Model the fold of this input.
Amino acid sequence: MKSEQISAIEVASGNLVPMSCKPPILSSTNHWNGIVLEQHHLPAFECPELCLQQHSINIWLANSCQVDWRLAGGRLHSTQIRRGLVNVTPKGIPTQARWNQEIKFLLVSFDSSLFKKVADDVIIGSDRNIEIIPQRGVCDRQILHLGMALKTELQAGCPSGKLYGESVAIALAAHLLKTYSGKRQLNSEFEVNLSEYQLRQIIDYIYDNLALELTLTELASLVNMSSYSFCHWFKRLMGISPHQYVIKCRIERAKFLLSYSQFPIIEIALQVGCSSQSNFTTIFRNYVGITPKAYREMI
Done:
């Protein structure tokens, strides 16, 4: 997904157009792999019929509003959507909507290749065609929680890096497949038996490359696993997710450097894989409770 704004095909013209009538007020473009998050604040509007290129989720941030909508040229429906409710729209299904007041929502769009990779792990059998059933105005606490977590991360400048966004993208994709898929044969258990040596290989790689922008795909490839299976395997053995473990390692390395070196804080930030001093300060304060400067002054 290289475009600057999430787009769709306008059915009437066949042209590629933005999903919304105004640019987003917040966008994660170029921050994460496999997923794009946008925050929109739109006036009353009637959308043309659009055909989405990716599976997408809307998370409603505004007060209650009536939305009139239709799918695939079918009959018109009206749904009262309130704050926190969710719409799920599969790719390839023409959709049209209108509303008569200002609306605020998060728009989450998934890369098709990420969805396919997760489906290969989640769906049992040789037929892995992905069928997501459209939803309008549903209460889904997991989607709401993960979507708001992405919004908070984006507003903070994405201090946790690509690994965080990729982890949430996989969790959201798996949840959609398990909850809103037409498939009924789904994997619930993962029998992955890797050795302690392979786990040590992953841990050593993380420690040796803390200064780099680590990704799930990169870590999973070290043991020839998919990103989804790797997350389950790692969390089962370590008790925390790969993303949380990497952050923990970065904080411990930072504490050591703050205590026993004279490196400037910006240099320490770069050595532990943070793109800026402000991102480093945000992560450190979130996990330690004080800023790196205050921690150093306590030593």
